[in-house]
Amino acid sequence: MPEPRDHEPCDPPYLAEAIEPQPLEVIGAVDYSGQEVASSPVAATSRRNWLLLAVAVGLPIIGLVFMAGLAAVGWYIWNMSPASSREYAAWREPVSSQIPDRIREALREPTEKDLTQVFGDQADEVVQLLVNTGKAPAQIDVSRFLEEMVRCGIAKGLNSISAEALREHLEKEMEYDPFGQRVHVLNVEVLKPEEEVRLLVFGEGSGIDWLCLYEVYLIKRHGKWRLYDWHDRLLPLSEVQRAAAEISRDNPSPGAFVRLNSKMIEIGNAEEELDICVEKMIRARRETFLPHLLATQADAYLACYLCMLGAGPQLCRYLERLPDDWMAGKHFYLARAYQLSGEADQAFQHAVACRDEFGWHPAVALILAQTASDEQQRRIARDELVRYYRLCPHDYLVVYYLAQYLDVPTFRQLIDQLPFPSLLSLTT
User: Fold this and answer.
1) DSSP-derived 3-state class of residue 242
2) Which among 2, 16, 130, 286 would be 20 to 30 A from 400, CA to CA?
């Protein structure tokens, strides 16, 4: 695979071709609450809450302020401060369109990990960090965030001295949203004994249109655990990596990424027909020149937004023109786009490809369950649902789909241990 061109602006020709206004086929859908989504040309009832949509892709409104301010501070650093010749060597693995082996191995047979083995009597404290909104400096270690911005090797010219100029801004503006109403930790990696840990977290109630898997980085200082980075693995960049890419000296347009995202949200709020809204959104992306890493992140955000709009056909055309190795998560967005377009077999095939990338993914398991048709596909969907059920036996939606894939005796045996005995009525 060619090396990422993180210093070159990206405006690939396929973006222009993706804007082909077509009559929108009105398609009904079922969301992950099990409720039918009303069919309408503009999906008016499901596409207007763009504040929540911004949260769904990991960029709350305060994140827009944070990133815009960060870009401004970064511009000041590069233009008013001499760069030190001493820079950290890259520490983390390079950004890649491939899901790391460690995630695939952890998810081959997903099981909940016992946090007390690593965190002891602070395990509950860690869970609270994950299920509640966190802010700097109480829940976010800004010093370690800055250090990681330097060490990840993305922010060209950034060093430990110039990074300090960002501290005051980060301590005022940084926050993160809960990773789920209920979280399941599927892997725990100790990066530095007694000090740094990486968690793989599945959050129930995370996102809006699908469930998410996150990698969350924690550091313990002065006896307290705090976050210093987090990464929705269906997006190309973690929070640190995105911030580093935005203020990198080789970014020719500091702030362009944030302005683009704000523009797409503004377009989504406009009272216009869906095809016009989608055309404007894709055009805004095409007209924004970004370095490679930010370009992939922008495309992932656009895919999230078009999914939320229910713009399946347009998203299919857009994604199919992206290079195969453009970004992690491409197969997932294609699966969702084809599902929204009513093309179940294509959706299923891309969902299987995404399952193979991750080992397992909760959102993929549900797409498989919703799009399987023949007996072989139903076996695949059933197996993924059973793995999901073993993590979340209380999830009504998983039980709902299992009831469609299992015979009654097997189904009753599976739900015997559910905390809600009323679910047994589903078998009668």
Assistant:
1) helix
2) 130
